[in-house]
Write a structure and sequence with these properties.
Blueprint: E1 2-3, E2 9-10, H1 18-23, E3 26-27, E4 31-32, E5 39-40, E6 49-50, H2 53-58, E7 74-78, E8 86-90, E9 107-111, E10 114-116, E11 121-125, E12 135-143, E13 147-157, E14 164-175, E15 180-182, E16 187-189, E17 192-204, E18 209-221, E19 250-251
Parallel strand pairs: 1-6, 9-11, 15-19
Antiparallel strand pairs: 2-3, 4-5, 7-8, 9-10, 12-13, 13-14, 14-17, 15-16, 17-18
Length: 255
């Protein structure tokens, strides 16, 4: 089980000597919801790796795949034939039967406590709840094959008492073909057009809280294909691999 929660410490900056500063150093309790209730991580009978928002920003984790670099026994990689989805592997368990639509993966994925269909291990992602402050963040980048990448988030209170709040986030990525050459179709392939948006409405009353989220995604691609490698040549260096069909940057498709 992997939760994204917070851990931190506080220290009095105005102490006059090191002894007082050390006395003011405290470690906050880590509260998790791995069992659908708030409880201390020390009382939770499952193995949990936790990252808070400060850790995510400091380690420059921009997407779920980056968690593989900082989480033990965790491997997250994009799905074959595209980059809009992920395949998660925790402690050796991963998706091995994706062709069977009635089966469930060994690793469950939860976003804000909502199970993502298609499980002993789990990846749980908790997004920031809109708070009393106005927040706006936008990241724009460009890359090869005329790639344009824009990721943004915004949130603000809607009512004067700041109990009703809203937020919106989105990701837009466009990229031309050119990553591979499809010899069957005699053209360059690798075009991707991805748009994803999320709205968040949150109410914090005196006796209850309510949250409503909506998601929209649209992904278009001309697809990529794998080149078959001679299984008896896998011990060779990468640049010396022998292919039985296609090459690194040249592929063959069924049609």
């Amino acid at each position: 089980m992997m939760n994204i929660v917070s851990i931190g410490y506080a220290q009095n900056q105005e102490t006059k000597d090191s002894q007082e500063a050390q006395a003011d150093l405290t470690i906050e309790r880590i509260i998790v919801t791995a069992q659908r209730k708030e409880q201390s991580i020390q009382n939770t009978p499952v193995a949990i790796s936790a990252l808070g928002p400060d850790d995510i920003e400091k380690m420059q984790i921009d997407n779920a795949k980056d968690l593989s670099q900082v989480m033990p026994n965790v491997l997250i990689k994009p799905v074959k034939g595209g980059s809009a989805g992920i395949t998660a592997s925790i402690s050796g368990g991963s998706v091995s039967d994706g062709a069977n639509l009635t089966s469930e993966a060994e690793v469950g994925v939860y976003i804000d406590d909502v199970y993502q269909p298609r499980s002993a291990e789990a990846l749980k992602i908790i997004s920031r709840i809109p708070d009393e402050m106005f927040r706006l963040k936008n990241e724009v980048s460009i890359g090869r094959w005329n790639e344009i990448y824009d990721k943004f988030t915004a949130s603000e209170p809607l009512s004067d008492d700041q109990k009703l709040r809203s937020g919106i986030s989105g990701l837009v990525r466009e990229r031309d073909g050119g990553r591979q050459y499809n010899a069957t179709q005699d053209k360059e392939v690798g075009v991707e057009d991805y748009k994803g948006f999320q709205t968040d409405l949150y109410y914090e009353g005196d006796t209850f809280t309510a949250r409503c989220k909506n998601f929209f995604t649209d992904y278009t691609s001309d697809g990529t294909y794998a080149s078959a490698v001679d299984p008896f040549q896998l011990d060779n260096p990468y640049h010396e691999l022998s292919f039985t069909s296609g090459e690194i940057d040249k592929v063959l498709s069924p049609f």
